[in-house]
Amino acid sequence: MVQDRFGPPDVLRLADTGLPEAGAGDVLVRVHAAALNPADWHILRGDPLVARLMGVGLTRPKARVAGVDAAGVVEAAGANVRGLASGDEVLGFCRGAFAEYACAAADLVVPKPAGLTFEQAAAVPIAATTALRGIRDVGEVQAGQRVLINGAGGGVGSYAVQIAAALDAEVTGVCSTRNVELVRSIGAAHVIDYTTQDFTGGRTRYDVILDNVGSLPLARLRGALTPKGTLVLNGGGSPGHVFGPVAGILRAVVASAFVSQRLRPLPARQDRAELLTVTGLIEDGKLMPVVGRTYPLAETVEGLRTVEQGHARGKIVLTVA
């Protein structure tokens, strides 16, 4: 799926291109499935505008083929690659994942757990490692703590519920009506349907809140925290913003210096150690991808529209081969 200019999903087009060129430290992956992420539509639109100054591209996309999350089979390995060979099944962070072939740095892919389909495996990289970072590292969740996941039915949220539950926290998931049973089934002790109940208006206070939605004012989120609780901010925003969710996160960081609560942004990164941790949890039966819907590669536009609307159930995945 090729992108020549910034814009809505419709700017994407299916085209034949040459094979991506793999470097000495890269692997060429025959992609079987690729996951869609909110970051994909942000990059697609060049939104927020400040992102264009951070490597996305100023007037046109820097990367002609989008996508990051992929699962597939190693087609070829660069001269400096050790531990990976042609035929290995892998998942990880692949440049230009919305294609039949994509390149990846060898240290950014890991073996695919044998029990996962390629579609499930593609749903792992960004969402699962983000959830791990938010719960374990930034939120510093401990056993017995009350943890609330806002957006618990989505990609990051569905992993975060499972990871917090695996740490023996008391998990409350916030989601839409149609996802209530799903969120309960993956480990939430309590589930709040945001269409009928406002979790910021109740009496319960939480030790950690992971906000994957970004639609609530900071004051209301803080009101649902314990006096020394931690708010982990991840995502939010909509098309057409100069700063998008960055502005709200910066306000929270500044406010954190003046309050007893910890208000923390959730940084984005690609990390092999985190990939190995989440695949280990999958192999131990403590974590399972939730794939809500799949689209063929030719229908990437429709898939991105679903993600952009912000109501995806689990992960949306492209089937490539």
Overview features:
Quinone Oxidoreductase, Chain A, domain 1; 2 domains; 7-stranded mixed β-sheet; alpha/beta; Rossmann fold; 321 residues
Describe the structure.
The protein folds into two domains: 9-124 and 289-319, Quinone Oxidoreductase, Chain A, domain 1 (Alpha-Beta Complex), CATH 3.90.180.10; 127-265, NAD(P)-binding Rossmann-like Domain (Rossmann fold, 3-Layer(aba) Sandwich), CATH 3.40.50. The protein contains nine helices and 13 strands. It is globular, with a radius of gyration of 19 Å. It is an alpha/beta fold and 321 residues long. α3 packs across α4 (155-166) and α3 (125-138) crosses α8 (272-283). The strands form two sheets. Strands 1, 2, 3, 4, 5, 12 and 13 form a seven-stranded mixed beta sheet that branches. The two termini are 14 Å apart.
List the helices and strands and how they pair.
Blueprint: E1 26-36, H1 38-45, E2 69-77, E3 89-93, E4 101-105, E5 109-111, H2 118-122, H3 125-138, E6 146-150, H4 155-166, E7 170-175, H5 180-185, E8 190-193, E9 206-211, H6 218-223, E10 225-233, H7 245-256, E11 262-265, H8 272-283, E12 291-296, H9 300-308, E13 315-319
Parallel strand pairs: 6-7, 6-9, 7-8, 9-10, 10-11, 12-13
Antiparallel strand pairs: 1-2, 1-4, 1-13, 2-3, 3-5
Helix pairs in contact: 3-4, 3-8
Q: Would you summarize the structure shown here?
A:
By secondary structure, this protein is of the alpha/beta class. The chain has helices at residues 38-45, 118-122, 125-138, 155-166, 180-185, 218-223, 245-256, 272-283, 300-308, and strands at 26-36, 69-77, 89-93, 101-105, 109-111, 146-150, 170-175, 190-193, 206-211, 225-233, 262-265, 291-296, 315-319.
